[in-house]
Amino acid sequence: MKRKLWIILGMFGLIATSTWVFGDDGEGHTTWLTRLWREARLDVAPANDVLYRAECGSCHFAYQPGLLPVRSWEEIMKRLDDHFGESAELDVRSSAEITRYLTANAADRVDYKRSKRFAAAAATAEPTLRITATRYFLHKHDEIPQWVLEQGERPLKLFQCDICHTEADKGSYDEHQVHIPGLGRWED
Known about the structure:
Shape: globular
Largest sheet: 2 strands, antiparallel
Distance between the termini: 52 Å
Strand order of the largest sheet: 1-2
């Protein structure tokens, strides 16, 4: 009888400890271990810079710096007067701050698993200005048939990461979380 009591008490203790260690109050307040656990599972670090999100994320998905290497971010930031056919010029101070954020967290400077793969694939190539033109991106999306991109009322564009990757804004590009509009869950 004492053994069962100890087992039950041990289970309650384990549950209470795990709740305290991995706790989340549902309002975004989490323990440091929960945050560490989540970050360890992320593919890239989320784009969390306020200025970057405001300036760049107001026009398009705030691509995480870990999706391109330093050389690519530097080139992109140098060419803001012609940012893929649009002017995205910023004041000098904002441009410098965003460049500093992007290059400090670039694929070849961080330790996230997909960032490492983007960096490795770009190591010998000329710096690309498009994430969708990187060898790693092309490899990861090469099994998507053209009809998938063209189905529905609005054709999908591969640069719209957050349309299909439901957790992209959080830095997760897990293929088990892909949901293609009009088709549903997608796994290749």
